Structure formats: structure tokens, C-alpha cells
TrEMBL record:
The active site is at H450 (proton acceptor). Gene3D superfamilies: 3.30.390.30, FAD/NAD(P)-binding domain. It holds the Pfam family Pyr_redox_2. This is Dihydrolipoyl dehydrogenase. The lineage of its organism: Bacteria, Pseudomonadati, Pseudomonadota, Gammaproteobacteria, Chromatiales. It comes from Alkalilimnicola ehrlichii.
Length: 473
């Protein structure tokens, strides 16, 4: 007789493992199946985010920032350093240890919550059955009352730049360079391309990003994107817009062929990162007779509660519509767990924060000015530069700004956009404010500690009504 569980989760990334833990907290018997194997050949929970995405990239971003600070800015504080050496293998080893500690933490959480961990491939069968194929061993069929599909996403590959795992790599390969490439090309100037480009630029690479779109960071508020572009260019990142890659020729160097408004162009690089986006990992996720409904792009079709077309089968995270963000997937996992347990789980998709972990960071929540104007929504806005705050100046982090957008009639906050130091942390205040339907005046009347970076948010809210104190209105 097949083993039976209240819930089987296929995928142990941020959507899957969080959903599994919440199910267990609610008294349900849970099994989690995941096939990810680390570069050491060991099964590891955490999905792309923890193993080859969010966490390792942030570890390298921090390392590269430390190196850059020693070389470029410590002297302004009166700290003089000589003989600085860069040890890339040690940097990569530290990154790997951070990942190992985090994945081990998830295993401990599974154990503490009495969750059954199954390393291997999971496939949805008809009738809420799941075929589990271990990495070594024969397949077995499991039975579930409910199934949560959370298999995440994978990098999109392009025919013009086929990966070779050495010189032409995807975002995962960009985390494994053992030395700093003298010349680095990046196809795609989106979130992943900018983050990876920033790491190696700070470590000494000459980085060129080739972006097919004519607009830099189109989803970002145009004022913020313009400021970010200026700061990245000042740092040495070269971003070429409207550049469509047509092919790559391998020789002693890599020759990247692309076309822009001026015609055919070439770029010589030593390494090339392909970062043109991600697609859902739904290949071999379900048997044909399971009749799971996918759309034309491979996403699992779900309703607003992440219920698929099959009763008792849910899908969360990168395999469904919406932004491919770890925290969005986690909240969907919690929502589904609570629904399975008879509660009323909920995700507010209008207040999901976005972050790009470059330096300066970019973060936002809600709508952009350009999208609101296109929709005919009457708005008013205020901005404030970090350079006018004492804390930012003391930190030598005076670039960037905060922008608050409110409804012109109701004053309700519709969007907050930040480019600058610690934007990833500052945006949380805006998320909370919008979740409670705050007005720009609410934010303006809240006392913010002095001196802090958060004062820029305060002053931007004041600026909506031309009441900012530390700038001319």
C-alpha cells in the first residue's frame, strides 16, 4: 500500500519549504520531494534561491563591496591600506559555506517539524498520486490528500549564445568564477545581469552589459531608473541599450556579435554571462493523464488562491503567474497551507516589494508614475535626495533618492521607489504603510529618528505636499 500524506510538496525552494513548514505547524502530515544536488553531489533543499540564486549572490555582492571599499573609499575616512590582495577561491569558498549553513538549517527545520524529506524527482500522477524517483533506487508511488507544486524556475537559454559551462555561463556559473575576468560581457541588463555585473565590476572586471530593450529597467520608475543608470555608468559599468545579440564566436577570446541602432557590432570578452530571464521548471512535472493545465509559456494555470484546475492540487512560486520573487513564493506557500487547513490564507499582490541588490540598491513597491499616468490615475509625487541627509553623507553614500507617489485626490500612497543605500531595508516601511492603506500625510507625520537614512523617506512624503524641510520646494 502506498505511503500516504496529508500534503506532498514537490520542490523545496522558498515557496515549497515554507509552505511545507506551515502545513506541519497546522497539524498536517507532510512530505517534501526535491531533486536539487549541490556541486558537491549532495541533495540540498532551498531551491535556486538558496543554492545558486539569492543567497550566494548576496554573499558575493557583500564580499565584492568589502574589497571595493578597501580600495576606493576607506582613504576618505582617514584609513590607509596597502598591499591589498584578492583571493577569489576563498571568496567562493565563503559563499559556499554560507549556502551550506543555510541548507543545513532547512534540514533541521524539516526534522523539528516532523516533515519527511525525500531527495529525488517528484511527478504528479492522476488522482493526487505522486511518483517519487530517488537519485539512486526505484520509483515509488505516494498518495496525498493535497499536492503543492513548487518546482521553481530555471535560466532561459538563447541559441545565439549557447552555454559551455566555462566561458559562456548562466547566472549559476557566474557564481563560480575562480579568477576575475579582465573583460566580462553580460547579455541582459535586468535584475540578475546587473547584480552579477556589479560583483565582478567591483572586483576589477571591465563589464559591458548588452540589453535588447531600448529602455533601461522598464519596470522601475523612470526617475529612479535614470538615476541608477547614471550611478552605474559612473562606477564603470557600461550598459548598451537596444543591443540584440545575434551570435558568439569562440577563439582565443569570445567575440559577441550584436545589432543596435547603428547596425552590426562586435564585443571582445573573456567570459560571458547569459542573464536574459527565467522560465518555469515544469518539464516532467506531471504525467499526461494527470491533465494538469499549463499555459503556452509553461506556467501552471492557477486561480487567485493558487488552486490548479485539479481539486486538491495547488501551485506556488515561480511556476505560476506573478513576479519570480522568493518572498512572493513563500507567502503563496503560507496561503495555500492555511487554505488546506481550512483557514483563509491571503496574499496582497499589490504590495510585494522588489529589490535589485546592486550598489546602490534599487527597491520599490506599488505602481510607477509612468504606469499610473498611462492608466489615467491622477497623482502627485515628492522626492528627496539621500545627499541631503546627514547619515548618508556620513556614510559616504550620498547618491540616490526616494520618490513617493500618492493619489492626487485621496492622498493614498500608490508607490514608493528608492535608489540608494540600504534601499532593500528602507522599502519595508513603505510596504507596511501601503498594506494599511496609509496616505502620504500619514507617512509625513510619523516621527523618524535622526540621523537615519529613513529620513529620506520621511522628507519624500513631506515633499508630496511641498512641505519638505531639508530641500527647497
Amino acid at each position: 500500500m502506498a505511503k500516504s500524506f496529508d500534503v506532498i510538496v514537490i520542490g523545496a525552494g522558498p515557496a515549497g519549504y515554507v509552505g511545507a513548514i506551515r502545513c506541519a505547524q497546522l497539524g498536517l502530515s507532510v512530505a517534501v520531494i526535491d531533486e536539487f544536488v549541490s556541486k558537491n553531489g549532495e541533495p540540498a533543499p532551498g531551491g535556486t534561491c538558496l543554492n545558486v540564486g539569492c543567497i550566494p549572490s548576496k554573499a558575493l555582492l557583500d564580499s565584492s563591496e568589502q574589497f571595493h571599499r578597501v580600495n576606493e573609499s576607506l582613504h576618505t575616512h582617514g584609513i590607509k591600506v596597502q598591499g591589498v590582495e584578492l583571493d577569489v577561491p576563498t571568496m567562493i569558498s565563503r559563499k559556499d559555506q554560507v549556502v551550506k549553513d543555510m541548507t543545513g538549517g532547512i534540514m533541521q527545520l524539516f526534522k523539528a517539524n516532523k516533515i519527511t524529506w525525500l531527495a529525488g524527482h517528484g511527478k504528479l500522477l492522476e488522482g493526487k498520486k505522486v511518483e517519487f524517483t530517488p537519485h539512486s533506487g526505484k520509483p515509488e508511488t505516494l498518495q496525498a490528500e493535497n499536492v503543492i507544486l513548487a518546482t521553481g524556475s530555471k535560466p532561459i537559454s538563447i541559441d545565439a549564445a549557447p552555454l559551455d559551462g566555462e566561458r559562456i555561463v548562466d547566472s549559476s556559473g557566474a557564481l563560480e568564477f575562480t579568477e576575475v575576468p579582465k573583460r566580462l560581457g553580460v547579455i541582459g541588463a535586468g535584475v540578475i545581469g546587473l547584480e552579477m555585473g556589479s560583483v565582478w565590476n567591483r572586483l576589477g572586471s571591465k563589464v559591458v552589459l548588452l540589453e535588447a530593450q531600448d529602455t533601461f529597467l522598464a519596470p522601475v520608475d523612470s526617475r529612479v531608473a535614470k538615476d541608477a543608470f547614471r550611478q552605474f555608468s559612473k562606477q564603470g559599468l557600461e550598459i548598451r541599450l537596444g543591443a540584440r545579440v545575434t551570435g558568439v564566436k569562440s577563439g582565443k577570446n569570445l567575440t559577441v556579435h550584436y545589432e543596435d541602432k547603428d547596425g552590426k557590432q562586435t564585443l571582445q570578452v573573456d567570459k560571458l554571462i547569459v542573464a536574459v530571464g527565467r522560465r518555469p521548471s515544469t518539464d516532467s512535472l506531471a504525467a499526461d493523464d494527470a491533465n494538469l493545465l499549463l499555459d503556452e509559456r509553461g506556467f501552471v494555470h492557477v486561480d487567485e488562491h493558487c488552486q490548479t484546475n485539479l481539486p486538491g492540487v495547488y501551485a506556488v512560486g515561480d511556476v505560476v503567474r506573478g513576479p519570480m520573487l522568493a518572498h512572493k513564493g513563500s507567502e503563496e506557500g503560507v496561503m495555500v497551507a492555511e487554505q488546506i487547513a481550512g483557514q483563509k490564507g491571503h496574499v496582497n499582490y499589490d504590495t510585494i516589494p522588489w529589490v535589485i541588490y546592486t550598489h546602490p540598491e534599487i527597491a520599490w513597491v506599488g505602481r510607477t508614475e509612468q504606469s499610473l499616468k498611462a492608466a489615467g490615475v491622477p497623482i502627485k509625487s515628492g522626492t528627496f535626495n539621500f545627499g541631503a541627509t546627514g547619515r548618508a553623507r556620513a556614510m559616504e553614500e550620498s547618491g540616490g533618492l526616494v520618490k513617493v507617489i500618492a493619489h492626487a485626490e485621496t492622498d493614498r500612497i500608490l508607490g514608493v521607489h528608492i535608489v540608494g543605500p540600504m534601499a532593500s531595508e528602507l522599502i519595508a516601511e513603505a510596504v507596511v504603510a501601503m498594506e494599511f492603506a496609509a496616505s502620504a500625510e500619514d507617512l509625513a507625520r510619523i516621527i523618524h529618528a535622526h540621523p537615519t537614512l529613513s529620513e529620506a523617506v520621511h522628507e519624500a512624503a513631506l515633499s508630496v505636499e511641498k512641505r519638505a524641510i531639508h530641500k527647497a520646494n
